[in-house]
Specification:
The protein contains 15 helices and 17 strands. The chain is α/β, with parallel strands linked by helices.
Amino acid sequence: MTNPAPLKLFNSLTRQLELFQPVHPGEARVYSCGPTVYNYPHIGNMRAYVFADILGRALSFKGYKLTHVINITDVGHLTDDADAGEDKMEKMAAQRAQSIWDIARHYTEAYWADVKALNIRQPAQWTIATDFVPQMIDFAKSIAEKHCYELDSGLYFDVSTVADYGRLARAQTEEGEGRIETVEGKRNAADFAIWRKTPPGEKRQMEWDSPWGKGAPGWHLECSVMSGQVLGFPFDIHTGGIDHREIHHPNEIAQNQAFCCTNGLDRAANSGANIWMHNNFLVERSGKMSKSSGEFLRLQLLIDKGYHPLAYRMLCLQAHYRSELEFSWDGLGAALVRLKRLVMGVEQAKARHAELGSASIAPVEAAGWTLEQVQGDVGERFQLYVARFDEAVSEDLNTSIALTVLEEVVGLKKVDPAEKLALIAAMDAVLGLGLLDLPRADLRLRPKAATISETEIESTLAARKEARMAKDFATSDRLRDELAARGVEVMDGDPLGWDWRLGE
């Protein structure tokens, strides 16, 4: 049995790999910026939550007691992240002529459905922004005298009152980063509103009384308050998309500094979190990623085209979270094939396990396996694979290598199937593909636009089988081509016999 590899994570604040050293021994407290629930999430949004899920699973695997918080922004996020534009929630409610509360409820439930479909674990707590408005007002009051000033439009944070503002984004040295729209009366271009007053003569659906008049909190204030309230400052890790690194998270950090201290960021804990982690963009070249394009790439569109949602999770696992990931239908199809092979390999191992009457594999609790557990549950032959998997996970969540190790284990022959399944379960507890409970047949989804029924497919395949037995290969080929023309791919040698041809 080898010693566990040290867990190293890339800290965006320091721009280097760092050894994970928890604030509270044996615990890991993580906050992830969640969605603004004004529309359906696109698959680029969902990459951030797959990444955060992998991080949480890895921390559990390494033996830490995980407390993971994800927020729901239902007020305060403007149409321009750079502190400008309309409130996204108010704008959508006006467009739909619906209550803003109904808008929030509908899109929150849609987001949670995508979370479930992608096998993302439930966090310890979902924090809803509107549930924390009194705490946000108290937070703003505590920093207002030293760090804020009031304008007609709201209460603004003076970024010159804290040390090292913009270090996360490197706003002082990287061209174009940290720019914020000019507002008349602002002391500094980067100053941002932490409380927005309702303009005279207007009435918002979401507004509250405050010392600065009726209005609503700013987006940046919300995350500072919710993370600090639930996890306490400093906590261990704050995650988000790389776009948050440029404006949102630097503003969070400034508020956290003002609330906790005014010291510089040479000590990461002064930022509110010891480690800041960001996943890179999902890149799509057709222009459908944008919500403004109409039929944008949301998870349901992938399902409607016949792709199982876990194929998208597989696609994410194949790339490092800090690398750009290019989306294509061919790439998604290849990820689905890779997932199918894993599922078929696990099914074969389960059949072998049943055939031999092996002892049942150890139960997997909701939190998954720990490294210590799996090291104790598998024999010497498997320990090398455990060590390699642990090294990959511990090296800044290198899921592409971890996935390769899992595939090697699935492909092992002449080994105890109970031990093999136990190791697969432990690895999958980190990768989150649900392999032990995912039947191969469930991956065969009927595209929404399909013009042929499954009964017709089975009937045609039966006729094709008869033709092949009669060595009538011309008829066999014709029937295969007819199915292909209607979107069905015949896979000779596959025990299921057919699948939908995947494509845009």
